[in-house]
Amino acid sequence: MLRGFYTAASGMMTQQRHQEALGNNLANINTPGYKADQATIRSFPEMLIQAQGKKQLPVNRNVHLPISETIGSLNTGVYVQEFVPNFAQGGIRETNIGTDLAITQDAVPDETGGIFFRVQNEAGEERLTRNGNFTIDGNSFLVTNQGYYVLNNAGTPIETGGRDFTVTDTGMLQTDTETIPLGLAYVNDVNELTKEGDNLYDGESIAVPADAEFTVLQGFLEQSNVDAQATMTDQLNAYRMFELNQRVLRAYDESLGKAVSDIGRLG
């Protein structure tokens, strides 16, 4: 009985974490370049139940032979193993703002490959993002909305000199005095990236391969890839699963209460 008690409790905890991830996805539905988190739910290892006993042999001497009979398997509950971002491309929205940039990815060498903007976080470490909602700071540097420097292909912050600029479809930032290649990075397997706060990712990257087909759009933003309708449906299903486990837990609790009170009364 206690094992079933813990199994139901693990189901409640799993659905609670799932619900939190779905709520976070909905909260970021308007965040440019946001990639929805998907919960991977796994079961704990199953246990094989066997009945142990003895069988008396038909001989004069009182001989008993130990026997073991397999009853079946017992599941010991579930848990959220990890949250995996869905890197499917979000929709593209025109903003007509010159500092807004979006990457449309047409074809890459690897099925799980992806192209990202290179930025520098507050600790001076290079990170990747698909959020091209950039702006110009007070020192004429191209930065993210959080104030992180946008990098060029040499890994240094892009300084615009306060001048207007245009960005070509290959990622060349052009002012009236110079041309600066945007820092674009390629990741062979996006599923190996580690998601951090502020829509940033950490992981190994290389230069964009020559055979990759992509376009950098100026005055456009990639939208979040969260499907609001599907997410709300998943939230409802998670709530129902939580409620079912809660009922099972309550039934176990009532059974334990009766066992304690009734057996104590009989004694």
From TrEMBL:
SUPFAM superfamilies according to UniProt: Flagellar hook protein flgE
4Fe-4S among keywords: no
Domain Flagellar hook protein FlgE/F/G-like D1: from-to ranges: 113-173
Keywords (A to Z) from UniProt: Bacterial flagellum, Cell projection, Cilium, Flagellum
UniProt keyword Glycoprotein present: no
Main subcellular location: other
GO cellular component, one term: bacterial-type flagellum basal body
Compartment annotation: Bacterial flagellum basal body
Domain named Flagellar basal body rod protein N-terminal: residues: 5-35
Alphabetical GO biological process terms: bacterial-type flagellum-dependent swarming motility
Domain Flagellar basal-body/hook protein C-terminal: 218-260
NCBIfam families: FlgEFG_subfam
PANTHER family reported in the protein's UniProt record: FLAGELLAR BASAL-BODY ROD PROTEIN FLGG, FLAGELLAR PROTEIN
Similarity comment: family membership: Belongs to the flagella basal body rod proteins family.
Protein name as annotated: Flagellar hook-basal body complex protein FlhO
